[in-house]
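Quick illustration for those who missed Monday's session on complexes.
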Amino acid sequence: MSYRLRLFAIRHSRFFESLYNAVNPAIVGTLKGINKVFGTKLDRPITAMEAGLKGVLFDCQMCGNCALSKTGMSCPMNCPKTIRNGPCGGVRANGMCEVKPDMKCVWVQAWDGASRMKGGEAIKDIEFAVDNRDQGKSTWLRIARGEIAEKISDRH
Ligand code: SF4
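Prediction with iron/sulfur cluster bound:
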């Protein structure tokens, strides 16, 4: 089910991009306020909420540095090689993953999703490799605390 929802989100990447751009300022603003009042006390439920929501929709692996808005709503952490710039040279001629032949290549899907997005050109920006020390952290909280910048394209 989750895999099918993942593909659904990529097919409707333009809608999810608009939704993200609409609700993100409110989420980050609210979390900044919560952070001021409660500090880290509510980190666990907030992180669980992000994991639940994004897990269902995008098969999110909670890398702590979300790239969805730059990867066509296709989570790069579902690539077996967890590469942040792709596809690799091993993608099959039919667009399937070389490691998991039953799975569509996450990065072929990413480029497909990005082609429908207003800010889809951002997929061409080179991303750093993911820092595994941030595994399990909430991207939302990290943005609200200024630990990382939002990945919003400036090419709109
Ligand atoms: S890029 Fe990271 S935070 Fe975003 S959906 Fe994938 S695992 Fe989750």
